[in-house]
Amino acid sequence: MKLIELQTILDREFKIDRTDENLIDFAVTDENKSFINPDFLSKKTALMTDNSENVDIVLTSVFITKEIVKKALQYRNVLILTHHQFDYFEDERGLQPIKPEYFEQLKKCGISIYAAHAPLDTHSIYGTSKSLAELCGIQAEKYFYDYFGEPTALIGIIPERSFDEYAEYVRNKLERPIITTEKHTESVRKIGVVAGGGDLPDILQQVYDYGCDTLLTGTIEHRWNVPFIQEGNKQFHELNHKLKLNLIGGTHFGTERPAMIKLAAYFDRLKIPCKYIEDTVLLDAV
Fold it and tell me: Does the annotation list 241 as a binding residue?
C-alpha cells in the first residue's frame, strides 16, 4: 500500500482532524527536527517521518527505543505505528526525545513513523485503558476522564476475588516480572482502569467517587526526575492515604502494551501485514 493512502486511512480512523493534542513539545528538538515530516510539524500529530513511498508491513510499538529501532531495521518499507513519539526509560530519565541517529538509521531503511497518542488512548475499540481492561478480565460499565475531548479511563467490574489473587492474575496477563501494589481491602470487585500514567489525584478521587475498591493503572511509583511529576505523585499517595483504594501498577509501558498488540487485528482487516515489536528491556524492567 502507498504510504499516503495508509496515512489517510489512519488519520480517519484516529480522527486526527478532531484532536488538538500537541506532540511536538519536548519531542522535536534542534537536533532531530530535520528528520521530522513538515505535515507533523503543522498538525502536531500523526505521520512523524515520511521515509518511503510504499508500506509492506506495519510494526507497532509503545515507544521508539534503542531495541525497537534495532528490530525495525530488519525490515524495509515499514510504517512504525507508535503510541508515543518518544524514547523511554523506566527510571529517572523517563521520556526522552528520539535521538537523531535513530531517525537517520530508520530513514536509510525506508522506515516511517506514525504517532497516535490521545487518539489511541480514547479509541472506542483499541483504546489503551479499554485494551488493558479486556486483557485483565474487567467488564467496562462506564467511561470517564476527558482527554482531548474523549474519555480515556473506565470503571469496570470483575467477579469478586481476593486482592492478592487478582494482582497476581494481572501480573501474569501483563507478562511482567513484578508489579507495584498497595493493599487496603482483602477483596476486589469494582475497578477503575487508567493505562499509562494514572497517578493523578483527580483520577484517584473520581475512581473513589464512582465506588471502586481498586485502581489499576501504569504508574504507582513515579521515578521520573521531574519536580512537578514527583509532586503530583506525592499528592496522589497522600490522597490515597485517606481514600485507601487498592492500587495495582503495571508500569507505563506494561499497561499500554496490550493496545499495541491488539492493533494487529485492525491491520489484518486492511490486509496489511502487521507485527508488534517487543521491547524486552521495558517489559522486564524492575
Answer: no
